[in-house]
Amino acid sequence: MFIAVIIPPAKENKILAGLIVFSMCASLMFSRIDFFSNISPGFKIIILTVLIAGAATVLFPLKEVEYDEQ
Prior knowledge:
The chain is an all-alpha fold. It has 3 helices and no strands. Helix 1 (2-12) crosses helix 2 (14-32).
């Protein structure tokens, strides 16, 4: 079900597709590096989510939309 949520938007947005692939690679690295072996899997997900979302926000900010006041 998770794949059904991320695939349609990723088809339309190449930046989002790249972030998804990067997230999967980072998750694999976190599972293979001995330094992170003592951290619970749930906390690893939280760490990766905050780091990747923060980096994506800094690197790819959304443009503000101006609305006409009527």
